[in-house]
């Protein structure tokens, strides 16, 4: 009996590692592709030697193709994503707090409006949104990429639900001590929501970082493009340079992986709330 | 005091209200108007054309393609992703140790940019890739992955499954973990072991997760853009031409903004209706077995 159990657990681990291999394989393939000699990219599973030529080429350019502003694009992505994510977090905490802890008339109405909007297919808005952004004179500016993505309904929804689980007595006690709502948010509510904030932050950052369609529409100046858009648009002309494409993909993937691994300790705890 | 609460409440909610007025309400009404015009995105002059855009859309081969392509993607993606994520969840659920570590590993694909993963996929299935070399040399198969109207959507569906399987597995896992031990014990006393136990306990108790994952997966198929845009551009012969590609092409490549908006409205009605039908079917099916 004990023998068959060990055997089963062994098989389970074999399966678990096999799946893990499949899940991580494309990342591994991307990394090796970026480091392989050019005549071996996409031809050999394991390159015979490693080289940084693809990365050098990416930043200094080749003989026959004009170098693209990859570093600038990386910076654009970082700026746009950080600003958007920060705004989405701040606004979500504010609205979530109002909807769960401030008793005001009309709160239920706002709540319903958010729920309605969450299930609304946003594709209808794409063209008029583009027109509004152009009307404001934001075409080809960072504003176009940041402000329409400064409020996130899902984040508001998550924070509202989470704040509901914070006891009202705690808030009332703080009020007795003379704390205002902003102090309560900063000193009590915000520190208490660390694990869920981690997850919401990761999801918002990740989704913003890989946005393609919107960023592609509102910006066409090469210097303003985000890394994701530049990579997608260079795919055609750079298609003959797979090595540098992989290097750019690594550049695009690394920040998210680092962030995620940095916060993976809080991952399970926060996830449990999100999945409820 | 009450007045103060009202003030604070509206003040704190104001970012949402202002945002929604500018970026939701105005565009919404604008869209409803634009859909009935022949505006070309640039010219200052345009006129209302009544239902013409909608009539054109219904008879357009590319809109029809987008309509069917979505269901084709669903047919490939939904079964794969459900079977896959359930499989991963079962592995994770039964692992005695390092469960969290494997869960994080399985979740990694969800973080990948569709652009980057498309590039990798294109490399993996390129003509001289190790995979194709093996298929040619060992089996004599010369497969044109992205040139075939059946394989191209399958490649994209598999790639999307790779990305979402770890995420959905976490949903199934939390469903599995919420089944109380007592239920299993009670079932065992009643003689439910092995497959009987799976059928009479695990599946019914997992039904809510199954429902959520299915609806999420179905909804996802209506919003595909990045992968076909980068990988196939909608080809071959519209085989991967999604709604979003059609709307993008019409509005921003061909500059038919009015027509594009009409297609977007049709798309959202189709999405709404399809998800509604899926929900009803799932609820009926669950209700028949008493799962709920």
UniProtKB/TrEMBL annotation, chain B:
Among PROSITE patterns, the record links this protein to: ABC_TM1
Q: Which GO terms describe its cellular component?
A: plasma membrane
Q: Where are the transmembrane segments?
A: 16-36, 73-92, 104-125, 145-171, 205-225, 257-278
Domain ABC transmembrane type-1 span(s) in chain numbering: 67-278
Biological process GO annotation list? transmembrane transport
Keyword tags: Cell membrane, Membrane, Transmembrane, Transmembrane helix, Transport
Q: Does the keyword Transmembrane apply?
A: yes
Which subcellular locations apply to this protein?
Cell membrane
Q: Does the keyword tRNA processing apply?
A: no
Membrane topology field: Multi-pass membrane protein
Give the family from UniProt: Belongs to the binding-protein-dependent transport system permease family.
**UniProt protein name:** Sugar ABC transporter permease
